[in-house]
Amino acid sequence: MMFPQVALCVSASGLQFPHSNIDAGHLLRSAELADKWTGLTAPHPNLGCVIARGSQVIGEGSFYGEGTVSAEVQAVERAGEYARGATAYVNLEPGDCHGDDRGMLSLLQADVSRVVVGLRHPLKHFRGKSIKALRRAGIKVDVVGENLRDNGAIEEALKACMLVNAPLLYRAACQVPFSTLKYAMTLDGKIAATTGHSAWVSGKMSRERVLAIRGRSDAIIVGGNTVQQDNPTLTTKKEGGHFPVRIVMSRRLCLPEDAKLWDVSSMLTIVMTQQGARKDFQKILKDKGVQVVEFDFLTPKAVMDYCYDCGFMSVLWECGGTLAASAISSGIIHKVNAFVCTKIIGGITAPSPVGELGMVEMSQALNLIDISFEQIGPDLLVTGYLQPLPDLQHVVPAIIEDSITAETVAAAADEPVIISFYKSWDAFGAFCNFSPHAVSMPGPNGKPFIWKSVEHYYQEVMRI
C-alpha cells in the first residue's frame, strides 16, 4: 500500500520524523506497521502501535493474525520501563474481539501518559469503549479529527489510518466487502489482442505486484470468459502466506473440464452460476472438490451479498471488460488498480478493460478520486477510488469545539449507528465457523490436518 507522504527529517538515531508534527509521523508509522500483515489479520482489523518520547521511538508492534499477541502488548514489551510517561500511537482504537482487552490493558499497566488514536473503532460495540476506559484511568487520549486537529500532516496521517483498514470501514458502513478492480492494459487501452491472447500485457515487476495484491485479498473473482481465454491459476505463489478463495462467475457454465482453477489442492475454488445450469458439469466440478453455488439470478451484487455473508472483507476483481462493466454499474467497485503498459497492440475488436456502461457523453464519465501514480519497471500503476472512504469519525460542530471535554467527545461518538459483522463476527465480534481461513485440527487419522475453515472441520466430524 502506498501511504501519504509527510515531510520528514532524520534524527541522530536515524529515525525519521516530520518537521511540522511529531504526532503525525508516529501515527503514520503505526499505520505502516498495521499494513505489514494485511491479508493475514482478517477478519480482525490491521493494527499497529508506536510508543515514543518526543521524536524518539522506544517500542513498536503490529498485529500478525488470529491468536497472536496484540500490537499494543508487543510495543509495551519492547519499550519496557521506558513506556512509563511516554505516548502511545495506534492507528485504530484498541479492542477487536469480545472480552479481549489485553491491548488496552497493556497501555494502562505500562502507565503511559498519553494515547493518540487515529480512528475510533468502526464497529458499534467497540466504538469508544477503550477510549473511555483510558480516559477514566486518567490517561490523556487524543483522537484525530476530534480533539487533535493540527495541520495537513495530521490529516495525511488520518488518511493513512483509514486506508490501512479500508475493508473494515466499507464493510461496517456499507455492508459489502471492499472491492478492487484490477487490470493491465496497453497504451492504446487494450487488455488483449484481437485473438484474445494476453500473455503478457504487463511486465514482470507488475505481475509480481499483482501477486502481492492477491495475497491481501480474501477472494479473487473472474468470469467464465477469462477462464476460457487465459486458463489462470490466480495463485499468490507465496509459501506460508494467505491464500484467497478463487471465485468464477458463469451463468451457463460453458467452462473447460480441465481448467487450472479446478485444482483445489492448495486454494479453494467456488463456481457461482444460475439455478439449474448444467447439472452434469456441476457434478464434475464437485467431484474435483470445487464448490458450486447457484443463484436465482447471477449478478455482481448477488455475489457480493454472498461474499459478505461468508465474512469476506476484501475482494479483488480480475475479470474481463463485460463483467467489469456490470460490476461498476452495480455500484460494488470501490477501488481501481490500473497497470498501464508501454505497448501498443491495436485492433478494432481487441478487448478493453471495461465494457459498455451506457454512457454517451464524456460528461457522464466516472472520475476517480484520491489518485496515485507509481512507476513499476516500464509500467505505470494508476490507483484511485470510485467511491470515497467511509468517514465514520464523529464530526463535532465547530461552534462548540472550544467547550469539548473528554467525556463529551466520548459520549457524542456513541451516537452513530454502525452495522456490526454478520458471520465472520458474531454480535460481539468473535471469530466463527464461516471465516474463510484455514485451521489446523486433527484429521480422520488423528494427525494434524489443514482444514479450509472451521466449518469444513465440523462437517467432516459430523459425517464421521
Keywords:
464 residues, five-stranded mixed sheet, 13 helices, 27% helix, globular, disordered N terminus
Q: Which structural class do the helices and strands define?
A: alpha/beta
- Number of distinct helices: 13
Radius of gyration: 24 Å
Largest β-sheet summary: 9 strands, mixed
Q: Between the first and last Cα atoms, what is the distance in angstroms?
A: 45 Å
Q: Kindly report the average pLDDT value.
A: 83
Let me know the number of strands.
18
Spatial order of strands in the largest sheet: 12-11-10-9-13-8-14-16-15
Percent of residues in β-strands: 15-25%
What fraction, in percent, of the residue positions are helical? Answer: 25-40%
The coarse overall form would be: globular
Query: Uncertain regions: pLDDT < 50 for 5+ in a row?
Result: 2-20, 394-431
